[in-house]
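I would like you to sit down with the pair of lines that follows and say whether tokens and residues agree.
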Amino acid sequence: MVSAVGGRRSDARGRGQDASTSTLARLVRPSRFSNFQDPVGLLRRAFASGSRAARLMIVREIAALALIPLDLGLGLYEERILERATDRSPQPPIVLIVGPPRSGTTLAYQLLAHYLPFSYLDNASSMFPHAPITVTQALSRLPNRAPVDTSSYYGNAAGLRAPNDGFHVWNRWLGEDRYHAPSTLAPETSDSMRQFFRAWFGAFPQPFLNKNNRNSLCLGALTSELDNVTALFVKRDPFFVAQSLLKAREDVQGSRSIGWGALADHSAPVQGSALDDVAEQTHRVFTQMAVAKAALSPEQYMEIDYEALCADPRGLITTLGTRIWGDSLSPRASLDSIVPLRHRDTVRLPEHEALHLADRINQWR
């Protein structure tokens, strides 16, 4: 999948997968399936969920298979675009939405991409990993009148023009492991990344927006290697992050005992309590967020609370828009129709599990 699910790269034997699943994974681009214990089961569960975003995600995956030859052909053209990108003048801002998985980062991404004049990687480009600039530029010439849609399926927004996490681009520099990220980048990797953004801004002069939870784990490397980066940290109560991660494990991996999301291990079921394991994962992620934020100056980041975002989405849009564009801000869509959103911070676990998880979270909070 493109963004709903991340994970560790499987070894050459396809550890943890049965023969049919491993065969399917080899037929498809490996990186799109190496994050899941049971990709066939994931497709089945996604379709059965009834989620429009989930079903459109499946359609994109099928379409991406048919489009591989075209993607490779366009990739040759895009190589020339990258080679010709030599402008080293100051670039527009790059806004990276980061935070723990299941913290509201996708919601923030959808709202900001819809209302503010950012450029961003969309779902259409995810089907063309070798030519995202070319495809995005071609589609940008077409009108996009889709209304704002804040529904999603584990990071997957609905619609071809909807914002995408961009693993199909970030993986070039950060590798296929969607649960972990390198703390430093090799010089040639940094050069490649900077070259891509020179080409991107050559095609799209607007500030660039992206949400990818893995980028939270290597924010120091990204802010040091890229110019004019602002990090937007989305915060959510750790109990509800952990609770939502449990649900994601069930829906994505088929079992709450198999890890999903940043700093998880999905190579084998956990030994012991899944509640304890997800509490520990949440602790590690929040610790990593604190370390990343502490390394930045106040001018390099903003913070937004998930509940505050739902209560006042217009406030976030206006605040960030003014910070990036100042008095020249011209929203992509009218802000007058924005209304508060319903947040999902409610206890959904059985009482004994909720008490156990809360106790584990409170031990480090």
